[in-house]
């Protein structure tokens, strides 16, 4: 097969002439006993295919099928790698992902302009060499949330025995604010409810999330809730069409009538102004004596502080700050006081702000005020992103291990771990940008496109001498920010191809077992085996025999021995018994705080810092993407056919003299997006929305000081008609 020169998109031309693109058997994939790879809601596992933990079946989910679609591709033909990095960078994210599966290790030497395929033995030696020649404190290890508990555990142990706690995961771009806030208020860091509790609640607050696209099966639950007379309150600046009405594919009755109503009440505060709204709700609850005094005095502390704080606020000022009317405030408070069992759920609209932790502490305040945490059918539900992001955190892929896990690893595995505090994701990239990182391992994910301030991110990554990626398909990180240093990319099995079973934890704290076992591409390897092989080469004298960890059961036994609540993992492959992580679900008000009481926290809303930019940009996801993986251009629920679009309020369009469909430029302190197609949308004035990851050329590196999460959803920008 010849590599064809000339013109753009040469690689695609090569592929076309080779006619090699094709799909491998997909029918088996959908029926097999594996956890759904896409979102954190959790589906499949030992119940099979699309069944959930309540045995609800069948419930086809578009996202799950999309996630399979890139895994079941044929391997990328070897000749493609004769192309230069520049050719690869010409491709769109969609084209890169759809070149096929990475079938063999590829390597690029420092300064070279292209990858070449290499053998496994050579690649593993090189991987170990890349870390052996650097000082551990000048390295970091990152994992996305698609990898298994087993791979995550071996990754963090490898890093720590090598000598660094610089171990982080994508939750530092995602739900870290949730973990911080919940630890500070109720003493645990995850959902207090299980899926079944949604079947028993009568009110559901859905704040800063768009599950119609991002957690599709949640919509069935919300429609069921509406049908039994319950209410859904949506709080979101953007009027999401999929949260107004939704046609649930599982429900024939829903499809026939053209969809069901989802939101009973839709509040649209200004972006980033939610705390003003939450404060107003809390103030009215207190003024109306509609708080649960018995619960507050028996199970909480610091209510006095909150009362004092609320007394100093004016309701009308709070409403002016968030742009919600008195009538709507009255409606939401009435819905809440009428409810006997309320659930609060939230997503990235809460966490992607410099006050992300404060936002979530306020949601906790609202729940605690009416005793809605620590009982059946009521509680707190963070809507997690990746299908195993919660598990990756539970088993220790984080910069600071809980003291108990740390000491148990040392005692029970007979090793000594480093004591220095590890760095979170952005801190490691800052270190890289300063030229102080020599080696990095990235298991899954797409750090370049996930990070704010794209040019800066590329530079930070390019400053790392040796980069090791583990992936199923190619993405922009493998071809951007790799020009200067050495880069090695290893092809891994997808979840259903794992040679041995693996486990995953859902956002309801439910641990599933995936059988794996489908052999699509013989030359790819399991993440656990790769890490164990690197461990054996890099740390031959370690107190742990990494080769033993190639047996996933051995890894699970180690996790069960050191992570409290995970004991049932030890024999899950024999018992085939999926389980809830211990001490997480809160069906009684016993909080894991020193005094057993949950805590109220009183923060002011965030004053918007003065800026020359008059608009605030929210970066959002479309129906046709999973993070940086773009499956299709179209965003069906929002009726947008082109990702290079910007959603704007009609008054702003008029003021700029721009008609719907015209092109506009959006500029921040970091960059510019030129020629975005204006789409008239129902969102507050001066607030605009554009798609992530493209919008990361505009986002800034401002972080929430408490969770270190970038403010992806409140970026100061200017908008003008395209020149
Ligand atoms: N199809 C699909 N599914 C996915 C993903 C995907 O990319 N595609 N990604 C996965 C991942 S990793 C994650 S984390 C989740 C993300 O799922 P979501 O949490 O739903 O994430 P987003 O779409 O980024 O943003 C959610 C909503 O926040 C709103 N919002 C923005 N700013 C504010 C604000 O200041 N206040 C309030 N109240 N709302 C605000 C936006 O309008 C948007 O509707 O989805 C997971 N599932
Ligand atoms: N502006 C802006 N930026 C954001 C966000 C936003 O809303 N706005 N959202 C943030 C959020 S919530 C998140 S979670 C991050 C996402 O950040 P990441 O998790 O780092 O990125 P993804 O795009 O999910 O990674 C997709 C890649 O994972 C690899 N992959 C897929 N499956 C597997 C597998 O089974 N094993 C391995 N080893 N690799 C696999 C493939 O290379 C695929 O291209 O982005 C963050 N960045
Ligand atoms: S809702 Fe999430 S976990 Fe369930 S099938 Fe869809 S993508 Fe998978
Ligand atoms: Mo996420």
Automatic annotation (TrEMBL):
One Pfam short name: Molybdopterin
Domain Molybdopterin oxidoreductase: 101-465
Keywords tagged on the record: Iron, Iron-sulfur, Metal-binding
NCBIfam families, per database record: Fdhalpha-like
Source taxonomy: Bacteria, Pseudomonadati, Pseudomonadota, Gammaproteobacteria, Cellvibrionales
The UniProt record lists the keyword Iron: yes
Superkingdom of this protein's organism: Bacteria
Domain Molybdopterin dinucleotide-binding, residue spans: 615-716
Name by which UniProt lists this protein: FdhF/YdeP family oxidoreductase
